[in-house]
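job 3f2a | input accepted
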Amino acid sequence: TPLVDGNVANIKKKNEVNERLELPGLTWPRGKNILVKIQWVVELPFSVLRWISIPPCSHDGKWSEWHRWFVVASPVPMMVIILIAGFGWHGFKITFGHTKFRVFELCLIIGVLISVVFFFTVSSKRLHWVMQTILGGLAFIMSIVWLNIEANEVVSVLETFGLAFNIDTAILGLTVLAVGNSVGDWVADTAVARAGEPGMGVASCFGSPLLNDVLGLSIALIAKIGIYDKGKSFHICIHDKEYTKVKLSWIFLASSLVLSALVFPIFKFKPPKAYGIVLIYIYVVFMVFSILDELD
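job 3f2a | predicted structure (296 res):
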């Protein structure tokens, strides 16, 4: 009947509005179990910090007045977090030359000006594609900044554990940090392979560490030689004992990569389970050698 059809249309419209207004991490999880609600409460401060420092860009088609206000409020926190990522907490004390004008104050001024621009250019009804592109770029940059801050904190925590329990930081890097750094890749690569793209999953397994090695080493060396040492070369003796773990890592990494490069094409990217056991065996042997080296 027309009355029933009207009610159904109203319900659908209400559901669409509610879905559009939903803010992941900020919207109360109605209908969920108590564990999900406890998790929501614990994550709420971090969710708020994420929303006010990473501007939403309507990549999923959801946009509302709340999204607009988070965009308007985001520039000042963005500038502050970039300052912390670049200079640490000491950045709040840095001044321009001999003046008393601080970099922190300049960041606040720039953030307020950008907020004013967003206030008059961002609509609450529909996000223009130009503004969506700008906000997407800012969100990408801030995601990298946050990852950099989190990575530095993780390394600091590992160094603290190493000093407290007299454990070499290389061992912590090979175990705790390596596992934590690889869980995300493992989940993503497994999901891609199970979705019917084994070649893509295997390529990602190789591409991720390759990116870390190539860009990580190159950027670190450029920063060390070109920025901090101002072009001066520095001496590294690979025969020193502290580089034993590095050499072990490269040996086992090269062995597993060469072996995988031969096995996967031969079996058309569907190797037997026995090869998985071989890779696990290689990793166990590598860990044994690393621990033995740590224990002299």
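job 3f2a | DSSP finds ten helices and no strands in the chain.
job 3f2a | closed
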